[in-house]
Request: fold
Amino acid sequence: MIFKPTSTKKSITMTSTRDTQIVVVDTSAFTNPDAARHLGVNGHMALRNFLQAVADRQPLDTLVYMTPSVWDELSRSQLNVTKLPRYLLGHLHIKSPNRHALSIPGHVLWQLVDEWRKRSDEALKFAVGLMKESLELPPKRDRDAQDDEEMVRAPKRVKTDPTPSANGIAMRIVDGLPPVATTPLTPQAKREPRGKRQSRRTTFTPNPLMQKYVQRLRAGVRHHLRENVVDSAADLDVLLLAKELGAKVLTSDKGLLAWADKMGLAVLPVDMAKAWIQRK
Reply:
């Protein structure tokens, strides 16, 4: 039997006060090894230590919230969150933001659209520049390639032998090449059964130079479109829930930290979480 943490179905209007603090956690606080080491030896112990510190506070003045998407992501990861003690999971509340009731300032929406427009332009410029660079490289030539190019450019006289062969197949004769069979001349000619046809599948050998350009393209697009920005609905839910509850955002994601600041939300960097949770 898998224990599920507390799920808050009704809309919560309570906000953080001087006595009660609310924290909305993000996956990056525990799945990022560099961030998790501030709270434990691994992600599982980091989450356990954080919840244990919350449970040990007397009086209990800290509430921990998590969106369903974050809980699902942690459940599918190697953190084994479902194996945490029940008394610790009891301090974890699962809630989706009330998207229909929240109002976002128009300036924030304008900033988000403007940033994505600039980022898409930069990503497009990077991809076009990389393509131009790849096309300007001198092609690798060898003797066989030169011979093939000369054969393509040289005119060939093609004729069809009017005299059919013994099996009723006309022969296509090209200068310098052996005769090739063409369209059958008699209805008696039958196609070879599908099962006996020779396989024409060819193996594709990756080009090392092409692989390098593909790797550079992926890295560049990831840099322009994925770094330091809210790039998923799960990240946006974290911000919306924090705004709804008036909570701090516990994350190591630079995009979430930047946009929490733009939305006027309080943030809690992971490297400061231990000192904050042990506050007097």
